[in-house]
Amino acid sequence: MTTDSAQKIEINLINALEDRGLRKTSARAAVTQRIEAAGDAFTAEQLCRELPEVGRATVYRTIRHLVDAGALCKLPILDGAPMYSVARVEHHHHTICSRCGAVGEFRHSTVERVMRSLEKEIDGDIVGHRMEIFITCNQCLADNAKGDSHA
Amino acid sequence: MTTDSAQKIEINLINALEDRGLRKTSARAAVTQRIEAAGDAFTAEQLCRELPEVGRATVYRTIRHLVDAGALCKLPILDGAPMYSVARVEHHHHTICSRCGAVGEFRHSTVERVMRSLEKEIDGDIVGHRMEIFITCNQCLADNAKGDSHA
DNA sequence: TTTTAATTGATATTGAGTATCAATAAGGAA
DNA sequence: TTCCTTATTGATACTCAATATCAATTAAAA
Known about the structure:
zinc (chains A, B); transcription cis-regulatory region binding (chains A, B); disordered N terminus; three-stranded mixed beta sheet; zinc ion binding (chains A, B); Transcriptional repressor (chains A, B); alpha+beta; metal-binding (chains A, B); DNA-binding
């Protein structure tokens, strides 16, 4: 803590669990460290494969706790298991590369403004929303330009 | 066809299948009729239960064909099986009541405009998007006002 | 320490959805 | 109409994700 730490959003998942009154165990430490280290979005099964020393049930339970704590976002993937990504930005939306599956985050004030304007048109009370943008990420665009059809 | 039929969007699911070169069978007729009659969004398993005379595999296959044909929308539901609803509006988004699960459709030009403005901010090519609005529908609001906590 | 309750993880189970494949039905040709 | 080819069906077995069970273990408060 050399400088004021209020700026940086702490991505300390194990703390998020402790804050909920959960115990600090080696299994939970292994799961949260792995998630923090990877950085990318992941599926529950991927995590299980990467952490064979942690029981499958525990991996799933820990993920659920992190989602409940708001520390992980659960993204619904059509035709596939949901993916999880660390919530870095307070309220945000996701970009998902339809080629490689890379997940990004963004927030855009206009989106929120649109939501408010929609309230008039919609039959009922708005209680939330979800939005995903499907992209071809720059990496995939570059790969495509190089390799093209004959890999 | 008393008047010009161009106005009304035909919701003829069996025709959508025929247009794709698929045969008109009694099983497909049963599935599509049921979907049209219900009107509401549904899950694959619900349809299977309502149509015990049609094999489970056939129900799933028919749904898939209808989605491929663009006649059904497949909505990802977190913590649950995807729901399907008949696509009545060309490009649109969905409202989902978080109490009763009722699904509605809407389109809003501002949403599309926002999408275009996002292109500058996003790192890659936008190839699509999805948006769901979670609501408490008027029906549920009314039920709540009446019954309240002591059903 | 000791104690108590939370946690773990091997295993069984559930549920959604798909693959298989012999029997059947659709629909064009003769 | 009848025949023939091919699509379709549906019972069954299977895969995969995820949860329930529960005895053994471990965290952390006393």
